[in-house]
Amino acid sequence: MTTENDFKKYHEWLLTRSWTGILYRKFYLYPQINKRINGQVLDIGCGIGDYVRISNNAIGLDINPFNIEYCKSIGLNCVLFENNIPFKDQTFDSILFDNVIEHIYDPYNLINDAKRVLKTGGRMIIGIPGIEHFFYDSDHKVCYAEDQLKNNFYIDSLKTIEIFYTPNIKILRKFFVHSCRWLVLEKC
Q1: Mean predicted confidence (pLDDT) in 143-151
Q2: 1 vs 31, higher pLDDT
Q3: I need a labelling partner for 17 at 20 to 30 A (CA). Which of 10, 45, 50, 110 fits?
Q4: What is the percentage of the chain residues whose pLDDT exceeds 70?
Q5: At 167, is the pLDDT very low, low, confident or very high (cuts 50, 70, 90)?
Q6: Cβ contacts of residue 5 below 8 Å, gap of 6+?
Q7: pLDDT category, 175, cuts 50, 70, 90?
Q8: CA distance readout (Å), 158 to 47, 48, 60, 71, 163
């Protein structure tokens, strides 16, 4: 079980990001994601609100009360996740999991709940760290191989549209701490 101290430490760690990481997200990663989603976006595991900050159509959701307090203090639309996603069925056009599911031993219930609030025809994007960089964060619990990524998240009424990588040049992924694999799903 995660304690208040654990939440505080993780929040403080998120605030120590490098300027290169911030620029990478804002000018490379998020434009790549935005090419694949549209409409009202729910950013599940929003952290300190990086994506919500650059999107006028995003609402953040996070389990960490320190992250939510921080996001609200800078004027972001973010909500604390407690037991279930606190929105009505078919509310969102897109859902983003940016480096979230590797922190959860069994994300099945969370993904099913996300599927509930996703509109038919909506897209869900799930990003996980590359295998080379899984151990960068001590809070990572599950390392997904590409086969597992395709099989574990092919849940009823979701179909795989695309798998892409950031950065998209393979040699760079070995050296880039933020390298990720991304699964784009569509709700049927």
Answers
A1: 62
A2: 31
A3: 110
A4: 77
A5: low
A6: none
A7: low
A8: 25, 28, 22, 30, 14
CATH classification for the domain delimited by 4-187, as one of 3.40.980.10, 3.30.2380.10, 4.10.220.20, 3.40.50.150: 3.40.50.150
CA distances to 68, 69, 131, 155 from 74, in Å: 10, 9, 34, 36
Q: Is 123 exposed, middle or buried (0-12, 13-18, 19+ CB in 10 A)?
A: buried
- Both tokens assigned to 62: 């996070």
pLDDT in tens, 38-79: 999 999 999 999 999 999 999 999 999 999 999 999 999 999
165: tokens are 């990588």
Could you state, in order of their start, the residue ranges of all structural domains in the chain? 4-187
Quickly list DSSP for the chain: ---HHHHHHHHHHHTT--HHHHHHIIIIIHHHHHTT--SSEEEET-TTTHHHHH-TTEEEEES-HHHHHHHHHTT--EEE-SSS--S-TT-EEEEEEES-GGG-S--HHHHHHHHHHEEEEEEEEEEEE-GGGGGGSTT---PPPHHHHHHHT--TTEEEEEEEEESSSHHHHTT-TT-EEEEEEEE-
